[in-house]
Write a structure and sequence with these properties.
This protein has helices spanning 24-35, 43-70, 95-125, 128-131, 133-153, 161-174, 176-201, 204-231; strands spanning 8-14, 17-22, 74-81, 84-90, 254-255, 262-263, 282-283, 290-291. By secondary structure, the chain is an alpha+beta fold. The protein folds into 3 domains: 1-154, no CATH class; 155-232; 234-300, no CATH class. A 4-stranded mixed beta sheet has the order 1-2-3-4. Strands 5-6 form a two-stranded antiparallel ribbon.
Length: 300
Amino acid sequence: MPSARQGSVHLFRAAGIDVFLHWSWFLVATFGMSGRAKSYSSLIFNALEYLALFLIVMLHEFGHALACRQVGGTANQIVLWPLGGVAYVNPPPRPGATLWSIAAGPLVNVVLLPVSLLIGMLSRSLGWSEAMPNAHALLRTIAFINVSLLVFNLLPIYPLDGGQILRSLLWFVLGRARSLMVATIIGFLGVAGFIGLALWIHSAWFGILAVFMLMNCWSGLRQAQVLLRLAKLPRRDGFACPNCRTAPPVGELWKCGQCEQPFDTFQTQAVCPHCAAQFAGTRCLDCGALRPVGEWVVPV
């Protein structure tokens, strides 16, 4: 996934969320507009079409981010790039919280459906198809873009929204680790389908999407394996993550940032026994939150 700090331009900050635009967006925008130059009699409408795509994707990602915050998670960055957008969300490690954080994105597109249909009907009734054919064609294209993004995102292929929604639903039944394992395996099947489709229709774009999904499926599979091993470890009494309230596992599972040696941060009170480096925060291996070790102590 793209990083907000690598090759991206900061556009603005809204509701405490920083929005970045990856440099490659401009390259693909230029290519996309030139490829559809004959769709309108003026290139201005080509630019407006791509701007509409930008706005729809941005609203979709804001849906993810605001929903994540609503359930107590953190979300402070959105990156827009040629393959869509990425909202950097970290919901609490609960299936319901994760489900709402993911589902809220496609729900934005669902809300936009009747709006785009109403505007399209209004344009026809006003005779724009003949009086202003460019504007009428633009409105139809915007509606098509919104529907296409909704359908594509709901495909049950990890890491698309549909695949993550499937994972969240399976989480209720299979647990956190096994649900991710199943979702990524299904995702690999979807990736194979995308590769076959890309070869069949000779589409480099679908090939790029397949590679992107393959990388994320592999990353998700490795994360699932880590979660499975983590779930089998004994837990330490007297401590709990201030964020997710999960007791930490017992063992030398934290690595010192100075000497890179593993140690049990709760056994040594966040001090590396090898080099005596002291750490202000201890990261939860379950939810990823970084909090001082003193805040982990459960009152007796």
